[in-house]
Amino acid sequence: MHGPAMSGWLLMALCAVTGAYCLLRAHGGSGEERRTARAEALMGFSMAAMAVPAAVVAPPAWGWALYAVLFGVAALRALWFSRRSGHHLHHLVGSSAMVYMSVVMARPGGAGHSGHASHAMASAGGVPLLTGLLLAYYAAYVLRSGARLIPVTAATAGGGAMVGGPSAGGWGARPELALACRLTMGIAMFAMLLTV
Questions:
Q1: How many angstroms separate the Cα of 176 from the Cα of each of 62, 168, 171, 182, 187?
Q2: Other CB atoms within 10 Å distance of the CB of residue 60
Q3: Domain coordinates of the chain in residue numbers?
Q4: Of 143, 148, 151, 157, nearest in space to 187 by CA
Q5: DSSP code of 114?
Q6: Do the Cβ atoms of 98 and 71 come closer than 8 Å?
Q7: By the 8 A CB rule, do 104 and 126 touch?
Q8: pLDDT by residue (tens digit) across 104-156?
Q9: In this structure, what DSSP letter does residue 108 have?
Q10: How many other CB atoms are found less than 10 A from the CB of residue 195?
């Protein structure tokens, strides 16, 4: 997760902006939409914190345990709400992946204990099969989200509304922005998993 400094800062900024937009989305919509937006904001901000280059700001030793506990609770919450919405199953996978990455980084010799980026990436050592399954899941998720994003934009353009113009529900209620945020977080999760 703490690769070269420039890519770490870019990933951090992208996740932080995505988390901020999701937090803004949490102020409107139905109860289910607010719950989903809050879960996505938590994921975005936490991914931003995990992406800060370790050479610049070394995480405290207890930080990885805190992430593991936080995302363990988020995984249980997603499991509970998955009874109502299938999208919470994605949150369950995402929270579980964050627990997995936190545990890998907390281990002695993990990337979270090293300041040198190339050494950290080489010694992280997650479970190859689990890492591979998560990478495959997020690759499929990113491709699916990207494909879903195209028809929403095309439908908006074909429906007579201006592309990029305000919608009836305001800019925070635009479905293509929510999809773009999910796509962004999927790409970021894929990138973070590559370093495990």
A1: 38, 14, 10, 10, 16
A2: 10
A3: 5-194
A4: 143
A5: -
A6: yes
A7: yes
A8: 988 876 555 444 333 343 445 678 999 999 999 999 999 998 888 886 555 55
A9: T
A10: 22
